[in-house]
Amino acid sequence: MNWISNVVPPKIRSFLRRETPENLWVKCPESGQLVFHKDLEANLFVVPGSGYHMAIGAKARLANLFDNGRYDELPTPEVPSDPLKFRDIKRYSDRLKEYRTKTGASDAITLAAGKLEGLSVTVAVQDFAFQGGTLGMAAGEAIIAGMTAALERRTPFIIFTASGGARMQEGMFALMQMPRTTVAVRRLRAAGLPYIVVLTNPTTGGVTASYAMLGDIHIAEPGAVIGFAGARVIEQTIRERLPEGFQRAEYLKSHGMVDMVAPRAELRPLLARLCKLLTHAPQTDLPEPAAA
Predict the structure, then answer these.
(1) Angle at 172 between CA 199 and CA 92, to 5 degrees
(2) What's the CA gap between 56 and 263, in Å, rounded?
(3) Considering only CA atoms, which of 269, 114, 141 is closest in space to residue 211?
(4) DSSP assignment string, 121-138
(5) Which of 62, 109, 134, 181 has CB 3.0 to 4.6 Å from 142, enough for a Cys bridge?
(6) 3-state secondary structure of 8
(7) Alpha carbon distance 24, 38 (integer Å)
């Protein structure tokens, strides 16, 4: 309680007190810097001072990737929502309803097709905001549907991964998505279509053990945690201290696990160049040769 609530009459109080949105300022987890939300959004959710890459929603990522922000969202297959009738402190079906309301998506994977610097591409985005981006039946079917769409359209397939692993509430049904998505990747490879993986923070568990590490090219965002088991679990198992930066994107690049680390602002032109190179399309952004 303060003097406004104690002394000032209610009608005057409403003029003195202004409601402030909860997300007006965002604190950088790395440096503690406070950033105005609109500035952070304009900078693709990368903290200007520290360069920390914060989570970005699927819609915002797709709008930034495609030409003029225009794309067609592709449908994802319907699957049984709760095959095991799982329940812990609450029913799994209720959890799904909460995440669908919160994110506006049916599950963790969003599929889209459009133009990237004039070249047709098919894209999948894994959203960590939907139950930690976990891989379940719906996500597995969506990835397979996206790869099938790329096969039909004869386009490169790009996936942005972000996941805590397989979805425990679906048990073996979730684990089976690992070999199923692996088979779909092999179909892309057999057709000679590029498969590019962009690893974002975090990409762990069964996702890392399957389609996330099967790309023709692996690009990681700066500072992304990439691995199978958590660092603490590994330390407790081997009873040794892990190296500084272990499982971070930069460490993995220096040890040959990823091909390159690219800031979010550079991903769009980089992906366009790679797709054109792998499909033998004209590199329109290359400089013209000097006249003799």
Answers:
(1) 85
(2) 13
(3) 141
(4) EEEEEE-TTTGGG-B-HH
(5) 109
(6) coil
(7) 8
Model pLDDT for residues 38-77, shown as the tens digit of each residue: 989 999 999 998 899 999 999 999 999 999 999 999 999 9
Structural domain boundaries of the chain? 12-54, 55-279
| Coil, helix or strand at residue 143 | helix
Residue 262: its H or E element? none
Taking alpha carbons only, the member of 117, 96, 119 closest to residue 106 is 96
Please write the tens of the pLDDT for every residue from 238-291. Answer: 999 999 889 999 999 999 999 999 999 999 999 999 999 999 887 655 444 444
* pTM score of the predicted model: 0.87
CB proximity list for 217: less than 8 A, separation 6 or greater? 194, 196, 197, 259, 260, 274, 278
Assign a CATH topology to domain 55-279: 2-enoyl-CoA Hydratase; Chain A, domain 1 (3.90.226)
Helices marked H in 69-176 — which ranges? Answer: 92-103, 137-153, 171-175
